[in-house]
From TrEMBL:
GO terms for molecular function: protein methylthiotransferase activity. CDD domains: Radical_SAM (cd01335). Keywords: 4Fe-4S, Cytoplasm, Iron, Iron-sulfur, Metal-binding, Ribonucleoprotein, Ribosomal protein, S-adenosyl-L-methionine, Transferase. Catalyzes the methylthiolation of an aspartic acid residue of ribosomal protein uS12. [4Fe-4S] cluster 2 binds at residues 146, 150, 153. This is Ribosomal protein uS12 methylthiotransferase RimO. Residues 373-438 form the TRAM domain. Belongs to the methylthiotransferase family. RimO subfamily. One of its GO terms (cellular component) is ribosome. The lineage of its organism: Bacteria, Pseudomonadati, Pseudomonadota, Alphaproteobacteria, Hyphomicrobiales. [4Fe-4S] cluster 1 binds at residues 14, 50, 79.
Length: 438
């Protein structure tokens, strides 16, 4: 039997980078490469890096260093690959560096170090590709790049302007995933609500009909495939109201991941956030009227340059009013190359950032805990992620994998990953729910 070259893969960064990793791996698997879990003994190591924050860059450089030590043949790709000089300065010996979404170049680099073996009995790649996520949920990327220019962000520089995939292409991929057993589709992009703007919303043929490349149309069609559909990275534009109607109708999960980042108009303006001018609290109120079950998750940044105590307090007031389900908070980091560094605004001292972060987290924890407590006594649908002999771990409709909380489900009958069960919630702690399958 022909030797199948072995590749070890490190995937760092956000869910969007994970989708890139899956594409590279799918291609390699189709060519007969074997994926191995350790660097030792592999024919090459691919490191898919994240270059968004300085801390992520440090993590990427450390992962490259480890791969060089343990293996020596290292190919680097992903966001940090857009700045090859930063990588070469620390690790001159990497074999190749390619930027984000450069699937072809990564594969060519692999061919150069470990040519593919031609074996007619190669493992066939499953029709839905190789998923790095468990089989019952999958990320579905609907576009690349971003037309916004938030001043703290280098993604548009790294990934360019918005390029949407035609609706029919997204739907075909989603249908394959569902047919292969995926029970939950996580829709991702840099700005999901801007989907199709670049295509002028052009329609494409899906089954017997034309589907426009529009957020509402795509969400409706995805919702008809029979899997849970979860929307990430949505901005509070007015047209999002229509999609909330689909949530009220049960077609799409009543969950919105909206990175608000701040609430002070002055800071939002300096951040150049999309939809910052809209009255966000009014919009949230309206959404909850349309879909009372709606759960919102968001992220915020404390310590953006120029943020005053008054700005920060506006953010705390917003939290209290908005009563969001889940919230993440980051301390601002001056990312090299981000326009925010050139705004001439005074940086916030580290200790002030830390204090504000603590105050923010404390305020939100109380709100999240109250929201969770309100679920006690209810019957919720829960998707099982990790079955256990007596207690399994799953998620409610308001919990995305990896970023939100869990529901611990006691059950007399054995549960399998991907099962969607009804659970009577008995208690809540600070982050998670506990209940019994009924
Ligand atoms: S919306 Fe803003 S933060 Fe998000 S990717 Fe685009 S520029 Fe970056």
């Amino acid at each position: 039997m022909t030797h199948q070259p072995k590749i070890s893969f490190v995937s760092l960064g956000c869910p969007k980078a994970l989708v890139d990793s899956e594409r590279i791996i799918t291609t390699l698997r189709a060519e007969g490469y074997e994926l191995v879990k350790t660097h030792e003994g592999a024919d090459a190591v691919i490191v898919n890096t994240c270059g968004f924050l300085d801390s992520a860059k440090a993590e990427s450089l450390a992962a490259i260093g480890e791969a060089l030590n343990k293996n020596g043949k290292v190919i680097v790709t992903g966001c940090m690959g857009a700045e090859p000089e930063q990588i070469r300065a620390v690790h001159a010996d990497v074999l190749a560096i390619t930027g984000p979404q450069a699937y072809e170049s990564v594969v060519s680099a692999v061919h150069a170090v470990a040519p593919p073996a031609h074996d007619p009995y190669l493992d066939l790649v499953p029709a839905q590709g190789v998923k790095l996520t468990p089989r019952h949920y999958a990320y579905l990327k609907i576009s690349e790049g971003c037309n916004n220019r938030c001043t703290f962000c280098i993604i548009p520089k790294l990934r360019g302007d918005l390029v949407s995939r035609p609706a029919a292409e997204v739907l075909r991929e989603a249908e394959k995933l569902v047919k292969a057993g995926v029970k939950e589709l996580l829709v991702i992009s840099q700005d999901t609500s801007a989907y199709g703007v670049d295509l002028k919303y052009a329609a494409s043929k899906w089954q017997d009909r034309e589907v426009r490349a529009k957020f509402l149309d795509l969400s409706r069609e995805l919702g008809s495939l029979g899997a849970w559909v979860r929307l990430h990275y949505v901005y509070p534009y007015p047209h999002v109201d229509e999609v909330i109607g689909l949530m009220a109708d049960g077609l799409v999960l009543p969950y919105l991941d909206i990175p608000f980042q701040h609430a002070s108009p002055t800071v939002l303006k300096a951040m150049r956030r999309p939809a910052a001018q809209d009255k966000t609290l009014d919009r949230i109120r309206r959404w909850r009227e349309i879909c009372p079950d709606l759960g919102i998750r968001s992220t915020f940044i404390v310590g953006f340059p120029g943020e005053t105590e008054e700005d920060f307090e506006l953010m705390l007031d917003f939290l209290k009013e908005a009563r969001l389900e889940r919230v993440g908070c980051f301390k601002y980091e001056a990312v090299k190359g981000a326009p925010a560094n050139d705004l001439g605004l005074p940086p916030v001292p580290e200790e002030v950032k830390q204090t504000r972060w603590n105050r923010f987290m404390e305020a939100q924890q109380a709100i999240s805990a109250r929201r969770l407590q309100s679920r006690v006594g209810k019957r919720l649908k829960v998707i099982v992620d990790e079955p256990g002999p007596t207690v399994s771990r799953g998620r409610s409709q308001w919990d995305a994998p990896e970023i939100d909380g869990s529901v611990y489900v006691a059950s007399r009958r054995p549960l399998r990953a991907g099962d969607i069960v009804t659970v009577k919630i008995e208690r809540a702690d600070a982050y998670d729910l506990h209940g019994i399958a009924v």
